[in-house]
Amino acid sequence: MARILDEDYAYATARIRAMENKLITPQQYERMLDAATAEDVVKMLVEQGYGMGSTDTAQPAVQVSEKLLSDELEKTYALLREILPDPLVVTLFMRRNDYLNAKLILKGMYLGLEEPGVYAGSGTVEPSRLRRMIVDRDLADLPEIFGKAVLECIEAYGRTSDPQMIDFILDRAMYENMEKDAQALGSPYISELVALIHDLANLRVFIRAKLLGRSRDFLAKALLEGSKISRKFCMDLSDKPLDQLFEALRFTALAELANGLSEAFKNGEGISGMEKVLDEHLMRFIRKSRYIAMGVEPVIAWLFYKEAEVRNVRLILTGKINGISNAVIRERLRAYA
Amino acid sequence: MARLNVNPTRMVLTNLKRRLRTARRGHKLLKDKRDELMKKFLDIVRENRKEREIVEKLLMDVHSRFILARALMSSEMLEEALMFPKQKVSLKTSTRNIMSVDVPVLEFTTEGSGEEDIFPYGFANTSGELDGAIQALSEALPHMLRLAELEKSAQLLADEIEKTRRRVNALEYVLIPNLEETIKYIVMKLDENERGNLTRLMKVKDMMLEQARQQRLQRDGLLQE
C-alpha cells in the first residue's frame, strides 16, 4: 500500500477544522446543566445538530436520548469514513464496537438467548453477520487476533464457566488488534495514541483491581499486555500498596500521570477521580494535535473530542433524567477542548 | 345477653359450670398468648423498621451509583457488563415457630469462585463507578432477605394476633357472659323450684296439721257427747 502523506489529509483536516467549532463548549454544558428538564437538554442538542434529524423532541427524553447519542456517534464515524483517504484509521477505532458485540453475542449464547437484545452500532461488521460467524465458528473474515480470541473465549468458558474470562480475553485481544492495525497504518501518531490508550486501560485495570483488593491471580488474568505499562510492570507491583504504583510511574513514559493519580488517591476521590485523571491525560495528548496544520492527527482528535462530548452529554442527560445534582455531574464532566 | 336454650336441670348446671371453668381458663391462656404475640410482634416491627431504614439507604446508594455508571457507559456496554452474573445465589427457605406461628427463615448461599467474586465484567472498558454499584448491591442483598423475612413474619404474626384477639373477645364478651347468665338462670330456676317445693310442703304440712286438728276436735266432741 502506498504510504499516505499528510497532504492527503488536506480535505479531511479542513473539513474537521470547520466542524471543531461546532463542538459543545463549556458554556453550553453549563447551559445544559442549568436546564430545568432533560427534554430541554434534548432540544438544545437537536438545535446543535445532534442526531439524524429524526428526533421527536416532544417525546420524553428517556426515550429519545440514547438513540440521539448513538446516532450522533454513527454520524461521526460515517463522516470520517467518507473524508479519510484510508478508512483503516477509523475502522481501527470502530473495531472496539465489534469486540463489544462479540462479548454480547458470546454471553448471550451461553445464557441461551436467541439474540442478546442490544448491539453496539458503528462496528465494522454487521452484528447479525458477526453472530453467524461466531455461532458457525466461521471466523476467517475477522482479523486473525479477533478470531483466535473468540475461539479462546469458547475454550476458556467451556473450561471455567466464568463469563468474566470472555471479557478478559476479548479486551486483551482488542487492544492487541488496535496496536496491530496501528502498525499497519504506519503512522507514528496513531501508534503512539493506541499505545497510550492501551497503557491507560491497563492502569485502569490495575488500579480498580487494587482498590477492590483483588488477588495477584486475578491480576494475572485481568491485566492487558500493555505497551509501556506492561503486564510485567504491573505484576511486579501487585503485592505492594497502590501508592507504590504512583512512585513507579514517575520513572516511566507516563510520569506526568503520577502526581494527578497520587493526589486523587490521597484525596479519597476513589476510582471516579482517578479515571478522570486517566481520561484527561489522554485528552492532553490529543490536544497536542491542535497545532498540526494537516494530517491524521486533527481528524483523530476530532473523533476523540466527539466521543468525549457524547460521554459528557450522556452524563448530563442521565443526570437530568434521574435528578442527580449538578455538582456531582460537574465533577465527572471531562474537559477536552 | 342471650341465655342459652337449655333445660334448667342440675345436670345441665354442672355441665355449664364445667364449660364456664374451661372457657375462663381458655380465655386466660389466649389472653396470655395474645400478649406474648404482641410482644414478639412489636420486637419484630422494631427490627423491621431498623432493617428497612438500612435497606432503603443502601438501595438509594445503589441506585445513585448505577445511575452514575449508566451515565458514563453506553447502554450496550452496561448490558454487556451485567448480562451474565458470575456468582450464583441459592436461597434455602425453612420455617421457625413463634407461638405456634410458622414464620419463614431465608438463608442464602453463594456459589462462585470466591466470596468476593461479584464482578462479572472486565475492567478495561467499563467504568469504575459500576464496581461501587455492584459492591453496594451485594452488601444490600443479606439485608433485603432479612427484611423480607421480617416483613412476612410481622404479617403472619399480625394475622395470628387478630385471630387470637377475636377469640379472646368472643370468650370474654359472648361465651363467658352467656354461660354466666345461663348458670344464673338455672340456679335461680332451681332455687325457685326449691322454694316452690318448700312452700308446697309447708302448705301440705299446714293442711295435714289442720286435718289432724279437725280430727282431734271431732274426736273430742264425740267424747263429750
TrEMBL record, chain A:
Family to which this protein belongs: Belongs to the V-ATPase V0D/AC39 subunit family.
A molecular function GO annotation: proton-transporting ATPase activity, rotational mechanism
Pfam families: vATP-synt_AC39
Keywords: Ion transport, Transport
This protein's name: V/A-type H+-transporting ATPase subunit C
Signal peptide start and end residues: none
Organism: Thermoclostridium caenicola
From TrEMBL, chain B:
Gene3D superfamilies: 1.10.287.3240
GO MF annotation list: ATP binding; proton-transporting ATP synthase activity, rotational mechanism; proton-transporting ATPase activity, rotational mechanism
Example GO biological process: proton motive force-driven plasma membrane ATP synthesis
Keyword list, A-Z: ATP synthesis, Hydrogen ion transport, Ion transport, Transport
Biological role stated in the UniProt entry: Produces ATP from ADP in the presence of a proton gradient across the membrane.
Gene: atpD
Family in the record: Belongs to the V-ATPase D subunit family.
Protein name (database record): V-type ATP synthase subunit D
Organism for this UniProt entry: Thermoclostridium caenicola
